[in-house]
Amino acid sequence: MRVIVADDAVLFRVGVARLLADAGIEVTAEVGDAEALLAAVRADPPDAVVVDIRMPPTHTTEGLDAARTLAAEHPGVGVLVLSAHVEPHYALALVESDTGGAGYLLKERVADVEELTDALRRVAAGGVVVDPSVVAQLVGRRRVRNPVDALSDRERDVLAVMAEGRSNHGIGERLHLSEKTVEAYARSAFTKLGLHAAPDDNRRVLAVLAYLRA
């Protein structure tokens, strides 16, 4: 897999690139801002990019803005946005932007090379990845009105892990369920949420959004 790393903190950028290279991933470029990232992708599109959410010049949402631009120009390039803090509204904005392969992880996750490379492979394949800490905070919010009250506890468990971007196999491993059982819970949740007609991949994203925004 070929990856570009974008972060204005040189030591962090070099460190991530070294971790990825040691894990057998080819880092084709290391850049320090969103414009340089876009130029590098346009010159030689990779399978995925790792980008800090805050970079020059404003240090606000350059990573998210770059993700949207890449989705329009290079929809086949997965984007993994890294953040130093749990910011659920940015994670939801990324998921809701319909950018295709996209993920949001805390920077502390890069210490776990297996988790980082797994997230990159999933976004490169067109999947959605949301940091478990963000999922936990969204699920833990006090809800005045909860549109997912009809779901059983197990169906909610399945959607919570699905929100991290896990496949049915991965959900089954986390919850100690067979893949067929996970599929049954997922279908039941889709039905209760009124998600009947969309393709399965779209239903998964819509179900996760309904769950997280409840």
TrEMBL record:
<dbReference type="InterPro" id="IPR001789">
    <property type="entry name" value="Sig_transdc_resp-reg_receiver"/>
</dbReference>
<feature type="modified residue" description="4-aspartylphosphate">
    <location>
        <position position="52"/>
    </location>
</feature>
<dbReference type="InterPro" id="IPR000792">
    <property type="entry name" value="Tscrpt_reg_LuxR_C"/>
</dbReference>
<keyword id="KW-0804">Transcription</keyword>
<protein>
    <submittedName>
        <fullName>LuxR family two component transcriptional regulator</fullName>
    </submittedName>
</protein>
<keyword id="KW-0805">Transcription regulation</keyword>
<dbReference type="InterPro" id="IPR058245">
    <property type="entry name" value="NreC/VraR/RcsB-like_REC"/>
</dbReference>
<dbReference type="InterPro" id="IPR016032">
    <property type="entry name" value="Sig_transdc_resp-reg_C-effctor"/>
</dbReference>
<dbReference type="GO" id="GO:0000160">
    <property type="term" value="P:phosphorelay signal transduction system"/>
</dbReference>
<dbReference type="GO" id="GO:0006355">
    <property type="term" value="P:regulation of DNA-templated transcription"/>
</dbReference>
<dbReference type="InterPro" id="IPR039420">
    <property type="entry name" value="WalR-like"/>
</dbReference>
<dbReference type="InterPro" id="IPR011006">
    <property type="entry name" value="CheY-like_superfamily"/>
</dbReference>
<feature type="domain" description="HTH luxR-type">
    <location>
        <begin position="144"/>
        <end position="214"/>
    </location>
</feature>
<dbReference type="Pfam" id="PF00072">
    <property type="entry name" value="Response_reg"/>
</dbReference>
<dbReference type="Pfam" id="PF00196">
    <property type="entry name" value="GerE"/>
</dbReference>
<keyword id="KW-0238">DNA-binding</keyword>
<feature type="domain" description="Response regulatory">
    <location>
        <begin position="2"/>
        <end position="122"/>
    </location>
</feature>
<keyword id="KW-0597">Phosphoprotein</keyword>
<dbReference type="GO" id="GO:0003677">
    <property type="term" value="F:DNA binding"/>
</dbReference>
